[in-house]
């Protein structure tokens, strides 16, 4: 394992292991242990971490856990008790984790903070017991739990007893899942082995510092096994973030505010916001269907991130499907809508050709739908409503998507949304293309903007299949009844959100305000239902579509 700690040079100077710059020690300390030249994040002690994150004078250390002794009578170069005692003298700690309770930006938090200086932050019975007790206190008090990991893995000197701490701590986190208590993991450098394969990666939100390394097996072990060089940046936070394993990379200077926003999300008032006095449900005047198709695709229409910026306060974007990648065509995260915690998910296209291309034209891969599903499960756990913003020509249909189970990902989302017990408000803001749209569209309330479209297939695709002539797309658009007024009459959508004169691109701010009002109004309508009634309402809504009433029978 490469050294990552600043090397002292005299009493006041350090050499950064990242860029080898000579640094004034107090300058590094003022910068929270981050190199001001290359941004290398040095290791910090548990107590330094607690001081950086928590409100001044709010911290109370949890009662200590007694010593667990030497259960195996283990001796390597020295007896295990001597090794423990030396670590205690060197660090001033009695174990490799410090557990506290306090507040971050005024919000209560319980934290278990590991310290790599103590036997490499190894996971033994003492560490496992302390983290489990912290989780049990979080469960008892319904307080969010933060775990800051820094570890080389399980403690060999305690044998299989240390291995069992992975199960014990994982079960404790499972109990918090069942109770709907938020858990946050902060991965610091390094985090390996049994810690990486248990509590460090089981939390609702996984944050990591830049450059932090995370993995089950260490790179040296992998290299010895494979006998080949590892990819550049292998196991770093940046490498894993690009592969959908982490929610976000957060510089140390932003950690406190990021955690504060997450805690504000869970601590906010969960009652429904007051509805706006006007609810738009009337069908818009008829327009040429092909012209509406063009309007629905206009790059000037507000995107999901535009809507979020307009009316979602304290938003924290969460990334990745925790399996393969982070699909840029779907964005999502947590925030407050008129003070009420809400999970917001939507397709993201963008406004320029370059941005649209980077977002894959708003066409999600299986990883995108799995990311959305993960965020919906978080909402279900925490009991918060979901708002989805739909704008896609359809799901991505390339070879890689098929190989990674595109149909399975879409089907799983549709089934899961049908079974959620939290309110779901879905709004078609631009193109509502086929199953790629429906995978975010199974809502208690389904709305659409006046110049949006919603269809089983694109007009061009319909014309090409039925008439072998994609040039007849305008005829297909008329036949498909994909406009808001038609869909309102068919019972597909519950309301139509008006657009300003000239359409959404003419006044994106007014459009976002109209969507905001429609969301708040829909959430207020659903507020009187309990969780089982919410699910029954949604299932009944879709049960009647295409029945005798809709068919005119």
From TrEMBL:
Binding residues for Zn(2+): 16, 19, 35, 38
Cofactor binding note of this UniProt entry: Binds 1 zinc ion per subunit.
Primary location recorded for the protein, binned into one broad class: cytoplasm
Keywords (A to Z) from UniProt: ATP-binding, Cytoplasm, Fatty acid biosynthesis, Fatty acid metabolism, Lipid biosynthesis, Lipid metabolism, Metal-binding, Nucleotide-binding, Transferase, Zinc, Zinc-finger
NAD among keywords: no
Gene of this entry: accA
Function statement: Component of the acetyl coenzyme A carboxylase (ACC) complex. Biotin carboxylase (BC) catalyzes the carboxylation of biotin on its carrier protein (BCCP) and then the CO(2) group is transferred by the transcarboxylase to acetyl-CoA to form malonyl-CoA. Component of the acetyl coenzyme A carboxylase (ACC) complex. First, biotin carboxylase catalyzes the carboxylation of biotin on its carrier protein (BCCP) and then the CO(2) group is transferred by the carboxyltransferase to acetyl-CoA to form malonyl-CoA.
Name of the protein in question: Multifunctional fusion protein
Source species: Micromonospora noduli
Cofactor(s) required for function per UniProt: Zn(2+)
Catalytic activity: N(6)-carboxybiotinyl-L-lysyl-[protein] + acetyl-CoA = N(6)-biotinyl-L-lysyl-[protein] + malonyl-CoA
Assembly mode: Acetyl-CoA carboxylase is a heterohexamer composed of biotin carboxyl carrier protein (AccB), biotin carboxylase (AccC) and two subunits each of ACCase subunit alpha (AccA) and ACCase subunit beta (AccD). Acetyl-CoA carboxylase is a heterotetramer composed of biotin carboxyl carrier protein (AccB), biotin carboxylase (AccC) and two subunits of ACCase subunit beta/alpha.
Catalytic EC class: transferase
Alphabetized InterPro entries for the sequence: AcCoA_carboxyl_beta, Acetyl_CoA_COase_a_su, Acetyl_CoA_COase_Trfase_b_su, ClpP/crotonase-like_dom_sf, COA_CT_C, COA_CT_N, Znf-ACC
One Pfam family here: Carboxyl_trans
Pathway: Lipid metabolism; malonyl-CoA biosynthesis; malonyl-CoA from acetyl-CoA: step 1/1
UniProt domain CoA carboxyltransferase C-terminal: residue ranges: 267-525
Zinc finger (C4-type): 16-38
Similarity field: Belongs to the AccA family. In the N-terminal section; belongs to the AccD/PCCB family.
Location within or outside the cell: Cytoplasm
CoA carboxyltransferase N-terminal domain ranges (all copies): 12-281
Entry EC number(s): 2.1.3.15
